[in-house]
Structures are given as C-alpha cells and as structure tokens.
Please model this.
Amino acid sequence: MPAASVSVSRCSDLSELSLTCSTYRDCQGDDCQRTRLKICYLMRYWIVEFPAEFNLDLGLIRMTEEFRDVAEKLGCEDHFKLIDISTIPSYDWMRKLTQRKKQAKKGKASLLFDHLEPMELAEHLTFLEYKSIRRISFTDYQSYVIHGCLVDNPTLERSIALFNGVSQWVQLMVLSKLTPQLRAEVITKYINVAQKLLHLQNFNTLMAVVGGLSHSSICRLKETHSHLSPEVTKIWNEMTELVSSNGNYCSYRKAFNESEGFKIPILGVHLKDLIAVHVVFPDWVETSKVNIVKMQQLYMTFRELVSLQSAQAQVEPNMDLIHLLTLSLDMYYTEDEIYELSLVREPRNPKSLPTSPTTPNKPLAPLDWASGMTTKPDPSVVNKHIRKVVDVSAQA
Model:
C-alpha cells in the first residue's frame, strides 16, 4: 500500500490526501478491501491524534468529506464511520481571542510584584504560558520545521516572544533596585519562583527565568551576588544544571520524562529535536516505503507538544494580575539598553576584563533558539491591558 502511506510529517499536504483518496477509490484485486480498510485506519489515526487540524483547516475538511462520499458510494459503511469528523469539538479558541466569563470577586490581590509570593507568581506565569503554547497547532510546528523560520507563523512567534519577554522582565525587575542588597533579594525571589515553576512542571517558563538570571546583564553584578545566601546559591546551581544543554539537555529530558500529569515542555528543545529528525531522516526509504523510524521519532515529540491542546491547567488565575503581567511582559527594551542599565547599577571595575552583552561571565541557559524573536508590543493589546489595570486601580 505504498501510495496510501501518508507521512505524518506531511499530513497537512492536501496533495497527499488527494492521492490517498484516489488510491482508495481505484483500488482493485483480491486484496482490495483489506487495502481500503488500512487506508481508513490510517485516516482514523490521523483524525484522533490531530483533531484540531480537521476543525481548522478548511481544505482538509473539504477533502475528508469528499473521501467519505467515495466510501459511502462504494457501500463501505464501516469505512465511512472510520473517517467521520462530525463529532470533533471546536478548536476556534486556537485562532480567536475568547470572551472570558465574569468571575466572582475573590478578594483583593496585590498588583505589586514585590508583594507576591513566589508560588502565586509562578502559577500566573504558568497560566500565561499554558494559554500561549496550547494555541500552537501541528501545522504551526510543521511550518517552522520545514521552513526554519517564523514566516506566516504568528502563533508560534507570540509564544517565543512571551518566552523572551519573561527572560527580559526578570532582568529588569532585578535592575530596578538601586542597592546590591535589594537586587540580591529580587534574585533570591526569582530563584524561588524557578523552584515553584519546577514544582508546577512548567519547564518552559523555568528556562526563561533561569535564562534571565543567567544573562550577562545580571551575572556580571558581582557585588549583588555576594549578598546571596549559600542555600539560595545551592538552589540556583540545581536549577541551572536542570536546564543545562550538557548531554543534549539530558537532565531536563530525564526530569520531563519522569513528570506525570500536566506539564509544559521547553519549546526550544523540542523544536530543535523536530528539525534534527526532519533533516537527518528521509521521508521515504527504498523509494516507496515510509520511513517508520522517522515517523516514530516525530510522533514522540509531537505527542508532548500537541497534548497541551486538550490539557487543563491546575491554576485559578486572578485576571487583574494576568492583565498587569501581560502588560509588563510586553514592555520592549533592547539588549544594549538593559546592559547599559546594568553598568549604571554596578560600573565596570577598571582592573577587570571588559564584559559585553555577547560575552557573559559564565555559560548561559540556551536561549539561542529564541534569539531575535522579541517583537515590539501590539499597541492595541497594550492599551487593552492598561485599561484593565486602570479600572482595577480605580476600584481599589
């Protein structure tokens, strides 16, 4: 059944589906029914594993319906049922801004980040991360892997911008303090936030926080770091080791694989995995046989990424805080501007070697996959959240 072996890595290619449908319709011989049934089970697997594609892609929906019409005309009722997509739930939320239901007031919450407990901050960052990553579809991932860039891929671009926004925001929170002691307190707080993110199994935001604290604008602050306690330093070393790129991120992979239930992967690591598999393994072997090894590798990675679409975050957010966080993470500064602020806080020691944003004092958490992806905030989004924050302040 070579023509029916549709590569999962190309399953949004409508020409492949058209070819599969033609193979089903024109099939002849003693083994015809068995071949047709295999084709339908392949389609069923695709529908079950990637339901969002069959709800959002109009071309795919149309061709699947044509496929069903062919099965119906041939009198294959069992086949007809296998490729039924009528019961797939709506995935419109992946492309549209949803209207939030009004929530009963749960009491006032502090909108000053200094007063938030690490767990509260970690929970709200996790909510934002969850809402962002779960909107990324299979097609978005596929486009990035095939093209190697974010052209016409706004959903994935927003997720990467959120990652960079968190990393940058952590740096600015530290540098907003005027004394080394106060900066050390902020660093301590965000190390504790990283610890709570690990508890929540939100590895992506954990990587962003560690990346922010590992950035050269922060790690060059020797006087500030001298005020960190040994206990905090120990936790920090554990967090950096967890997301280290050593051994192809072996510490992270072990922790992620051992995690159960709700969990958010480090997006950049898994995107690199997808690109590596796509480049190293051909789609086909021996001309007409699908490369099963490649399909298995792609499936293992896609399963973790796409599973978030149906997962439920165990977090009840305070939407006032969400609006303020969103506004804060949308603030745009360049690398040079942040580094200049770092130099203002702790000027260079003339006797020490010069340090620049591109030559950090120690190895950083791997952020190269997201470099250059920070986008300037959408004015309409910023204004929306500003209005929300103003409304909350007026009611206080």
Observations:
- The first strand starts at residue 284 and ends at 285.
- The mean pLDDT is 77.
- The chain has two domains: 2-92, 113-390.
- Residues 2-92 form a domain with the Son of sevenless (SoS) protein; Chain S, domain 1 fold (CATH 1.20.870.10).
